[in-house]
Design brief:
The complex is a heterodimer of chains A (154) and B (186).
Chain A (H helix, E strand, L loop, with lengths): L1 H18 L9 H11 L18 H15 L4 H12 L14 H30 L4 H17 L1
Chain B lengths: L2 H22 L19 E2 L7 E2 L9 E6 L4 H16 L4 E6 L15 H10 L6 E4 L3 H5 L7 E5 L5 E6 L4 H16 L1
Parallel strand pairs in B: 3-4, 4-5
Antiparallel strand pairs in B: 1-2, 3-6, 6-7
Chain lengths: 154, 186
């Protein structure tokens, strides 16, 4: 019974939380679509693993409203992105610009991949060289002898 | 032992060093882009007197702290005693930017808008010379505020020189903010 009550209350809480999600402004679907597309490219600074479009944080709601207002004022997407970068830095961009400060971010993974390929190439080549090593007649004789020994014991 | 055999250990050590540095960083702290830029201008009503306004222009010629706070902000309560002490010491003037302090869910419907913020100051003390009342949070967005409390150190020319994110600590005040303020005071 207790469990039931607990589950019910959890359900109620989650329903009420869900109800707080950003209500789309039906009055201007064009702006709304533009705003949603743009806010997917922006990070919510409060809950940093969410996009501005997905976040429930109060600040994110305000910022979405800010984007709507700026769009209504006729600002372009680039201008709005600049507005965000000015305040929160490149960090808010899910697609950070290619500039020297961000080179490691952009090229790091590719460089690591290439280094990995080089390492694999060398280790495979080395193994192949080792496989090719010829056995001397002495080795063959000794191998035969050991194998023979095993058979005799059985 | 061959150098080759030390390689995995070397990689491991490098990894550990990187991870250790990572642990000391707080990913919630964004680099402020506003440092050394002019404090964004605004004109807001004063919390205590809605007929009076305040704007950064009024504070030219002063080195001051601008503290973003709200009564709903738990960490603001945490830093509040320190602000009180600082304001009593008179070392540096503290101005407030009260962030979206409107009646919350559960407050009486007829409660005046500024009631919560005023009650906060009347019960806990008021460290601010003046608090600006940022009802819709627009000004705070201009200041790049993403969580109260945040504290800005602003110089005589209205340039932001330092930003502290989260509750002020005695350590941050003594080691960073106050020495810098003294330097700016000249």
């Amino acid at each position: 019974m207790r469990l039931l009550i607990l589950l019910l209350s959890v359900w109620f809480v989650s329903v009420s939380v869900y109800a707080g999600e950003a209500q789309p402004m039906a009055e201007n679907p064009v702006i709304e679509a533009r705003m949603l597309a743009l806010s997917k490219e922006l990070r919510c600074v409060v809950c940093q693993n969410e996009s501005l479009a997905a976040s429930q944080a109060a600040l994110a709601q305000d910022l979405r409203q800010e984007i709507r207002d700026m769009m209504l004022d006729g600002m372009s997407d680039t201008q709005i992105v600049d507005f965000f970068v000015e305040r929160y830095g490149d960090f808010v961009l899910y697609n950070p610009p290619l500039k020297p400060l961000n080179y490691v971010l952009w090229f790091g993974p590719a460089i690591l991949l290439i280094l990995g390929f080089i390492a694999v190439f060398f280790s495979v080549r080395k193994r192949r060289l080792a496989d090719d090593a010829k056995l001397s007649t002495e080795d063959h004789r000794r191998a035969q002898e050991l194998l023979g020994e095993g058979e005799r014991k059985q | 032992m061959k150098v080759k055999h030390l390689l995995p250990l070397g990689i491991f050590i490098v990894l550990v060093v990187f991870l250790a540095i990572g642990l000391t960083l707080d990913p919630r702290k964004l680099p402020s882009t506003l440092i050394d830029k002019p404090a964004p201008d605004f004109t807001l009503t004063q919390l205590m007197d809605e007929n009076k306004t305040i704007s950064p222009g009024d504070l030219r010629g002063k080195v001051y702290l601008l503290n973003v706070w709200a009564s709903w902000c738990v960490a603001c309560r945490q830093e509040h005693p320190l602000l009180m002490e600082l304001s009593k010491s008179g070392v540096i003037p503290i101005y407030g930017l009260n962030l979206k302090d409107v009646p919350q869910d559960g407050d009486p419907l007829d409660q005046p808008k500024r009631y919560n913020a005023k009650r906060f100051l009347s019960t806990l003390g008021n460290p601010y010379i003046i608090s600006a009342y940022d009802e819709d949070g627009r000004v705070s967005i201009d200041y790049g505020v993403y969580g109260a409390p945040e504290t800005f150190l602003i110089d005589k020319n209205g340039i932001i020189r330092h930003k502290h994110i989260g509750p002020l600590t005695g350590e941050a005040l003594i080691n960073e903010i106050l020495p810098l303020a003294k330097k700016l005071e000249g």
